[in-house]
Amino acid sequence: MLYRSAMVRASVALLLVFSVGAAAEPHPGYVGVAVCGKCHADQVSAWRGSHHDRAMEVAAKDTVLGDFDDARFSHRGADFDFLRRDGAYIVRTAGPGGDVQDFEVKYTFGFDPLQQYLLELPGGRLQALSVAWDTRPKSAGGQRWFDLQPDETVAVGDPLHWTGPFYNWNARCASCHSTDLRKNYDLSGRRYATTWSEIDVSCEACHGPGEKHVGWAGGGAQARAGAADDGLPVRLDSARREVESCAPCHSRRHALIEPAEPGSPFLDSFLVSRLREGLYFADGQIDGEVYVYGSFLQSKMHAAGVRCSDCHDPHSLALRATGNRLCLQCHNPAANARFRSLRAGCYDDPAHHHHAAGSAGAQCVSCHMPARTYMVVDARRDHSFRIPRPDLSEKYGVPNACTGCHSEKSATKSATKSATKSATNPAAWAAAKISQWYGGPRPRHWTAAFADARADALAAHGELEKIAMDRTRPAIVRATATEILPRFGPRPAAVAASLAGDREPLVRAMAVRAFDLAPAEAKRAVLPLLRDPLRAVRLEAARIVVTLPGESLPPAARRDLAKALDEYRAAQRVNLDTPEAHLNLGLVHAARGELAAAQREYETAIDIGPYFIPAYVNLADLHRAAHRESESESVLRQALAVDPGSADAYHALGLSLVRQGRTGEGVESLRRATELDPAMARYAYTYGVALHSTGKADEGIAVLEAAHRRHPADTDILSALIGIHSERGELWDALLFARQLSQLMPDDATVRSMVASLEARASGGPGIAPRSGEPAK
User: Fold this and answer.
1) What angle do CA 659, 663, 665 make, to 5 degrees?
2) Residues 139-176: tens digit of each pLDDT
3) Domain 594-677 is in which class?
4) What does each C-alpha distance from 63 to 83, 88, 106 come to in angstroms?
5) What percentage of the chain has pLDDT greater than the value 90?
6) What is the third-level CATH fold of 693-777?
7) CA-wise closest residue to 500 among 525, 475, 472, 463
8) C-beta separation of 491 from 744 below 8 A
9) Regarding predicted confidence, which is higher, 517 or 576?
10) Closest C-alpha to 529, from 518, 549, 517, 515
11) Where are the domains of the chain?
């Protein structure tokens, strides 16, 4: 597509900034902020100096904020010298090979409350230095160099070293700090030729390419009146569309297409992370660095149609008002009718918040948007707008805003002075206060189900089913429950699969995952989702259907699968610079019987990411399937040389050794895997069964029973315990576990028959003693 006028071409040309690692290019349809500002001067003026404007800048005197006057920073044996030379900003430190070198700062990254610096490495790579400048005032602890991983010793070669993949700008950071970024990774040369239309987050990052809009604006009144629209691809005419225009950069997500189509639904270009452990606490509060969107999706605000610009000016990014006045735009008797569902009187009153007027505790955000600090100095508020629940903290250990401030309080200071409360438990004190002020009991919450699921508690699946099926719950909460359910056996997996036709696309996408271990015939239920309106769902469906024999599919389904697989491969090509993408491509090839192609993808994954153990494990399994057991062992030993603490590699190696007849070595490797990752039920199951098979039945039972206590919902462990105890004639023991299995699989006729048989045999068998605590029949 050509630009329509010399004026547009000239305006874009003025913005070009070239470097070896990245470059600005006049991407088709993009006109640049200089052109936008001709008609939208006020908006551009507000944008100047904002976080979007300063998201990334060329390193220069007026953009670099750090101390480069021969400053030195040392951290855990690593030295960093910051200096200037001939107008350039230089960092002297250990480079990719470990040798100390001088690296020029090419760009700045952000500016408040910290600033990072991008250094250039061969292959078009820009790397974000892991040492940043604290831009806060000195009185606030700022104006210093600091390490972003203060508690870690990171050596050269570690993926978390500044030269490693996790600090690579091209893959990890760039798309959200520049406009219309194209990664342009060349797999054959292992090189980047990354480009952007503008270096920062400019007008067209949110509104889409403006060329047609410029043409519309310059076409005269008559042409404008006759046009179908104003030419902008991103229509911010609804809360959903506005929020989803912000979400691509303000979320923890996975990209499905590059570049994303401006204005398209979020799940057509991205898949948001669910409320997983490590990212969110069990109640949905932020834990890891998840940004905003996943939290906001949980909120009543989102459900009521609140949008980002109700609180934030979309151009300056400044808050619409200061202090509680921001919240009182809606939460007061004269609130906008659009938000009436959120209103219950004026909340800026001690009668509501029970803190002194004007104090920190009286601020709405203190209780409803508690902050966590990331990157050492960057405090970010939780946008789920939740009501503090210290009662959940008591039961499940999740944070709460009350004890975030009142950590010194104890339950004995509460009005109830309950003898059952710990005298040193601030959460108990806070829960008592909440009950005293607002009454009780508190509403049921999904925390219990998610906390139980994370502990593999047997009771989790019943509550998870209710949450997944409850259409009054936020979609991200329902999707999380749907994704977890299959871990709790066939019946919960069937419940999850039944949601494949749900109206919420995120729930549909997670429901498809319930078919991962389903029989081939059951997987055919996924076929209609190959034509789902949203790409995220189609890709999940393709991943399942590709495992079915192609000749078993109707012609229309084969055509649908071919299209969906093309999209799936395209989604992986977005990230060909990551080992994960090649692993996914290899899995597709393996499912289609294309074993040589699968092997190439796994080997490429290892070449790109030598640290990525799943690629070694899958490559070893490919060798196993081809009866090349010695090659399988060799690959797994390479994996352990890279990561001696990999439970995955030890488990796979143990199985390989057992298959080779080296049973003693194999069992030892299985033991090591179990010790390294006791949370992985499969490892304990395999180790326990292996012990039993090698004549160490008592030890095997001990391992399996310990694993059962940790993972009471694991059906494989229960089945193994039933089988071993039955084989040893310990029928009451077998019956105890069989009854538990029946609770997990109430619709399974085989399990019901087994329980009945064991009950009959245990009751009638002479001299058979019941298990301790088990009533005799």
Assistant:
1) 110
2) 999 999 999 999 999 999 999 999 999 999 999 999 99
3) mainly alpha
4) 15, 12, 11
5) 80
6) 1.25.40
7) 525
8) yes
9) 576
10) 515
11) 56-177, 395-443, 594-677, 693-777
